[in-house]
UniProtKB/TrEMBL annotation:
PANTHER family listed in its UniProt record: PEPTIDE N-GLYCANASE PNGASE -RELATED (PTHR12143), SECRETED PROTEIN (PTHR12143:SF39)
GO CC entries: cytosol
One Pfam entry name: Glyco_hydro_92
Name the record gives this protein: Putative alpha-1,2-mannosidase
Limits of the Glycosyl hydrolase family domain: 334-542, 597-858
GO biological process, one term: glycoprotein catabolic process
The Glycosyl hydrolase family 92 N-terminal domain, residue ranges: 45-328
Gene Ontology MF term list: carbohydrate binding; peptide-N4-(N-acetyl-beta-glucosaminyl)asparagine amidase activity
């Protein structure tokens, strides 16, 4: 490495940067040094990015980003968009780029989730005659005669707008355009000339996880169709939400009708149905699709409330029909009020223009200049996806449905929902805190409201329900991290009280049987979650199956293999590859109070949550709480095996799990870690890297280990290498900053940006997870990453673009890196707010009121930031004075 001082570099290189011959490997895309900030950032967004697998399916939600191309505004409640068939390559968004059929345009969905949920009320234009029920028995899909083909040649999308031609090669093509506001959307349909039949079908039984009950009403005089449905069961977790909608047309309805299952009612104005499945059982039974794929729907359901309506129009003289539609999770009256507030009197084109303007306002919170056009497209598409979630949950009048099933008013904030806690605590909430602090504030207020209404902070709330999806205790990390990054306008006392309760008490919320910290008693007693209490993906799914026993003709006493044979169809052969699974104890109705998904992994997650609680308590002057939880934050050490040099599950007796390979995991995540393995989780101790490095044998040994680990960046959960297509590996590229080798962080972060992400449909290395993968890309491109949860520590790397401006109300943050390119990614010098900066980290407090980072970059590794004592902070149980005894 070169050893010029920073002062020498600034004198010799100046603001133009330096170029040192001798390159790092790989090609360098053309860089336009003079390219200014985009005047229309929305034009750089590819809404189809993430809808095609960009990596192998590792069994953790597929290899695609699971995004969707339909119109949405920032944090919008309504997400009207196309649902393709079979969509097995996109569980959350419902649109798979390689599919060629559309089943409808539903009102709700996730962006980036690795499991099924929402996709309520698919609305489908059709020219087929409605002479029999459009419903398909025991399915959430319509009769195939109403499913349409489509082609990417006749499809386009942009922020706030989507267009597609259905059946483009037929003699009756239908053109569909969509746009959206926060709670309302519009669909403009152009039927073919002289179409004998021109109808819109509303399938209230079409939710992807089925519908418990539903009812629909047609008011021909008002030109209105409205209804409600009860759905839920996101990722097979037993939660519920009720969705209400009102749709209004700009033209008179020529004819109409309803259906209930196979009963067609031409001229009918109302219909309702109730699922035949008992209330406590799942509507959907999962099927195992392939060895490499997650548990998923085989395409149909056990049963769903099957009800719908249609409105037909005279297309002979006027081919175009515009529908305005709005939703509410409170009431039909509120849905109608949302429609009046956001869409009444607003033309389709005006709503589209407003949506694009809103996106530009939000996208321009970060302005990048220079770099390649492909990089700018990737960046702004990532920022677009990062600002779709969380979901607005309050109606236009401020009301929302609480977790106690009561209507509440959000006073002075916007209630939000759809938080994939295990994912978003690692990058997404930090991005919101920095560039959209008002939305991060809403998030914190909403978490506190969740705890007030249900008794507990959530893991993965959907609608107004807990789901308990994933593992750990992410809410304390969300709260403490946002607070550390400057979000302060919330009830910190109430937040800390809820965090402490969840971290010390075992209890079950009445809402969906949710438990904030399963196995907390053993964790407190032993200092770790014993492997006897290890739940895995299989036991979680079997738990759902067990609730469906009456439909299978089983009584709940059969061995696990019998259950799998009955439900999955011969899946017992899979168990041969996983010793011990055939005798896995699965009591009827697996008890979340006594099981945690991934025993050793959950221990690490709880330790990180404990550190977050200690951090917030210390900041608030709650010394005793800080000291207690700081001591517990070292519990990750209890599942570190010094002989292996890796994390390892442990039995309650204190014996290690054996036989055990830390680089192995199975498709069920049954080896003590959720969606990762012992090697990958070893690097996930964000608050105490120095402690981890010491256990690994010191800096030289740790550098060698980590370098080998990162020779492959996205190798799946059963590998000795990194799995950066999923969140547990996010920390790994940045850890070299703690090892006096920040140049290796810079080199690896560049590899992550260039090898794992691009601007095409397959441009993500894994699920976007409600904007988390996008946020990680954004931080990597900015050249800093908020590494330590509950602290404001920014681990530094090299910016991807020559100039970046973060626009903030408290003051802009300007980053300059002249000459930044794919190959010029090594830091040779840095000034922070005008002063020389020699450390590979920075506290955000130096930028919270605005600031400036001016880089000098080089083509080869440099010595900048490698001095002893320059490493970022670490926090162990001995860090009481620094964390808990603040002046």
């Amino acid at each position: 490495m070169a050893h010029l001082t920073t002062r020498q570099l600034w004198r010799t290189a100046g603001i133009a940067g330096i170029s040192i011959l001798g390159a790092c490997g790989g090609s360098d895309a053309p860089v336009a040094e003079g390219g200014g900030a985009a005047a229309d950032a929305a034009a750089l967004v590819n809404v189809f990015r993430g809808t095609q697998p960009g990596a192998p399916d590792q069994g953790t939600g597929g290899g695609a980003g699971n995004t969707f191309p339909g119109p949405v505004v920032p944090f919008g409640m309504i997400k009207l968009g196309p649902d393709t068939l079979p969509a097995q390559a996109n569980f959350g968004g419902g649109y798979a780029y390689d599919d060629d059929r559309i089943r409808g345009f539903s009102l709700t969905r996730f962006s980036g989730a690795g499991c099924w949920g929402y996709r309520d009320v698919p609305i489908m234009p059709t020219t087929a005659p409605i002479n029999r029920s459009p419903a398909r028995p025991l399915s959430s899909n319509l009769n195939p005669m109403h499913v349409a083909n489509y082609s990417h040649d006749e499809e386009e999308g942009a922020p706030g707008y989507y267009r597609v031609t259905l059946n483009p090669a037929s003699d009756a093509p239908i053109d569909v355009e969509l746009t959206a506001a926060t709670r309302a959307a519009q669909m403009r349909v152009t039927f073919p000339e002289n179409a004998e039949h021109a109808s819109l079908l509303f399938d209230l039984g079409g939710s992807v996880m089925g519908v418990r009950n539903a009812e629909v009403t047609i008011d021909p005089e008002r030109g209105e169709i409205s209804g409600s449905l009860l759905s839920g069961d996101f990722c097979f977790h037993p939660h519920r939400y009720r969705l209400h909608f009102v749709a209004r047309f700009d033209r008179p309805i020529a004819s109409h009708g309803t259906w209930r299952r196979q009963l067609l009612q031409p001229g009918g104005t109302s219909a309702s149905d109730v699922s035949l499945v008992p209330p406590g059982d799942l509507l959907a039974i999962p099927n195992l699709l392939t060895l490499g794929q997650n548990f998923g729907l085989g395409g149909d359901l056990v049963d769903t409330a099957s009800v719908g309506a249609w409105a037909a129009f005279d297309a002979h003289e006027q081919r175009e029909v515009t529908m305005r539609v709005a939703i509410s999770f409170v009431s039909r009256d509120n849905a109608r009020a949302n429609l009046d507030a956001e869409a009444e009197g607003v033309s389709f084109d005006a709503m589209r223009a407003n949506a694009r303007a809103r996106w530009n306002d939000n996208l321009e919170r970060i302005q990048v200049e220079g770099g390649s056009e492909a990089d700018r497209r990737t960046f702004y598409t990532s920022l677009y996806h990062a600002l779709i979630h969380p979901t607005t949950f309050t109606d236009a009048n401020g009301e929302y449905m609480g977790m106690d099933a009561q209507v509440h008013v959000a006073d002075g904030y916007t209630q939000i929902t759809d938080l994939s806690g295990w994912d978003i605590y690692r990058a997404h909430v930090q991005l919101l805190s920095i560039i959209a602090p008002e939305r991060a504030r809403d998030l914190l207020h909403s978490l506190i409201a969740n705890a007030r209404e249900s008794g507990w902070l959530p893991k993965w709330p959907v609608g107004n329900g807990h789901t308990g999806s994933m593992t750990g205790d992410p809410a304390p990390i969300l709260i403490a991290s946002a607070h550390a990054l400057g979000v302060r306008d919330f009830d910190t006392a109430a937040a800390l009280a809820a965090m402490v309760r969840g971290g010390t008490e075992l209890g079950r919320s009445e809402n969906a049987g949710y438990v904030q910290r399963p196995v907390i008693n053993e964790y407190l007693q032993l200092g770790y979650v014993p492997h006897e209490r290890n739940a895995n993906q299989l036991t979680q799914v079997v738990d759902a199956m067990l609730r469906a026993y009456p439909l299978l003709g089983l009584d709940g006493t059969e061995p696990l293999v019998t259950v799998l044979d009955a439900v999955l169809g011969g899946a017992s052969a899979l168990l041969d590859a996983v010793p011990g699974l055939d005798v896995l104890p699965v009591p009827s109705g697996v008890d979340d109070l006594t099981l945690a998904w991934g025993s050793a992994g959950t221990t690490i997650e709880y330790a990180k949550a404990d550190f977050a609680i200690a951090s917030l308590a210390g900041a608030l002057g709650e010394t005793a709480v800080c000291e207690d939880f700081l001591a517990r934050s070292g519990n990750w050490r209890n599942v570190f095996d010094p002989d292996l040099g890796a994390m390892r599950p442990k039995w309650a007796s204190g014996l290690w799990l054996a036989p055990y390979d830390p680089a192995f995991n199975d498709i069920f995540s049954s080896m003590g870690f959720a969606e990762g393995n012992g090697v990958q989780y070893t690097w996930s101790v964000g608050h105490d890297p120095a402690g981890l490095i010491a256990l690994l044998g010191g800096q030289a040994a740790a550098v060698a280990r980590l370098s080998e680990h990162l020779t492959k960046l996205n190798d799946g959960f059963s590998s000795p290498h990194a799995f950066l297509g999923n969140e547990p590996s996010f920390y790994t590229p940045w850890l070299f900053n703690w090892m006096q080798r920040p140049d290796l962080t810079q080199a690896t972060v560049r590899r992550v940006l260039l090898e794992l992400f691009n601007d095409g449909p397959g441009g993500y290395p894994g699920n976007d997870d409600l904007g988390t993968m996008s946020a990680y890309y954004i931080f990597s491109a900015l050249g800093f990453y908020p590494f330590q949860h509950g602290q404001d520590t920014l681990a530094l790397s090299a910016p991807l673009f020559p100039r970046i401006t973060l626009r903030r109300a408290r003051g802009d943050i300007v980053i300059t890196a002249p000459g930044a390119s794919h190959s010029r990614g090594f830091v040779a010098g840095l000034r922070v707010n005008g002063g020389e900066h020699e450390r590979p980290w920075l506290p955000f407090t130096e930028l919270v009121d605005g600031g400036r980072l001016d880089y000098v970059l080089a083509d080869t590794p440099q010595a900048w930031g490698s001095d002893a004592g320059a490493a970022p902070p670490s926090f162990s149980a001995d860090s009481v004075a620094r964390l808990c005894l603040r002046p």
